[in-house]
Amino acid sequence: MSNPGKPLDFFWFIPTSGDGPYLGTDDGHRAPDPRYLREIATAVDRLGFGGVLIPTGANCEDSWITATALATATEKLKFLVAIRPGTASPAFYARIAAALDRVSNGRLLINIVVGGAPRELAGDGIFLEHDRRYDHAGEFFDIFETLARGETATLHGEHIRAEGAKLHFPFVQAPRPPLYFGGSSDAAIEFSAGRVEKYLTWGEPPADVAEKVARVRKAAAAKGRAVTFGIRLHFIVRETDEEAFAAADRLISRLDDETIAAQQAKFATESDSVGQRRMSALHGGRRDNLYVAPNLWAGVGLVRGGAGTALVGSPATVARRLKEYQDLGIDTVIGSGYPHLEEAYRVAELLFPELGLAPKKAEVIVGDFGTGARPKRITGLAAAV
């Protein structure tokens, strides 16, 4: 169970497939240049975010190399990095994960990604059907966990064979970094119940999240385990609700109906993800009724696969909505916004104080800009960042 008196652990997102101020268009597009990704990481590290999610996929810069580069440029930030079983052996992943844990001085978190589009998975040499991928992942992590404990791993499994595998350089975190996972199918929930520390859901309406949390808790309890919960959401936070609603409209203002139809058809035909089907069902590909719960806006999912909803509103409004999720057991938020650099500042400066996450106030001396006035003392977030 989450501690309702404890502030949320708030993460951000590193957009390794690109960024920009509009969805569904190249207008204002920002390539995932390493310098730009470093700007985002150093900003959120300074602003007080707890960590960042780095996505995985054929259209993303490699998550492990990116995380290693960003770890050397940051101080406190944790890195939630994906392991996709089948793209490499468990022994290989154990070695690179342990190396990154050492490079970052124990700031690695591991995100297990089993699902995905079959066509993309085929490009990585993975040809298993949906539920069989979880059987494969079970064997993968049997070996991975054995190595993390410092033991020699041998397995002649249905999917994986390993003989005498060893991990010679251990993790900083003992026996290994925490495991995160998200998946909505029965096979996914059964897998997560026996393996992970934190279960992640995409931003569905609170009633749907409550149902999913209950299913995961029941499955974990049946295995004598308990898991904690996180939620993946986009954020559009402005000083007033009206300004936030206008910003949401602006985000899809250059998105045409043909692009929406093409993306929705792609999701329907190329993905076997139960979570993706649940996301798409929220809006049905229509842009005329995107608020699927109070302040929960599904416009992102018109063209973006995966997490497709945003909380939209003033700081007080969004904080109330997050409290609803927190009351269900959510203790971690993985946020994002377009563009990710500017929206990280808005979330930190506007929303964090409402969530009890404001950085410690610092005092500095500044002059009035452009007036030549005598310098004065100020305190607050601007001073801290």
Index terms:
TIM Barrel; 385 residues; alpha/beta; two-stranded antiparallel ribbon
Please describe what this structure looks like.
The protein has about 375 residues and is of the alpha/beta class. It has a domain of about 260 residues: Luciferase-like domain (TIM Barrel, Alpha-Beta Barrel). It contains 13 helices and 15 strands. It has an eight-stranded parallel barrel with strand order 1-2-3-4-7-8-9-13, surrounded by eight helices. It has a two-stranded antiparallel ribbon with strand order 5-6. The chain has a two-stranded antiparallel sheet with strand order 14-15. Strand 5 and strand 6 form a beta hairpin. Helix 2 runs parallel beside helix 3 and helix 6 crosses helix 7. The two termini are about 35 Å apart. The C terminus is likely disordered.
Concise summary:
Belongs to the SsuD family. The protein is α/β, with parallel strands linked by helices and 385 residues long.
Q: Could you state the CATH homologous superfamily of the domain at 9-83 and 178-360?
A: Luciferase-like domain
Uncertain residue ranges? 378-385
How helical, in percent, are the residues? 40-55%
Report the CATH architecture of the domain at 9-83 and 178-360.
Answer: Alpha-Beta Barrel
How many DSSP E strands? 15
**Helical stretch tally:** 13
Function: Catalyzes the desulfonation of aliphatic sulfonates.
Pfam family, one: Bac_luciferase
Protein name: Alkanesulfonate monooxygenase
Family: Belongs to the SsuD family.
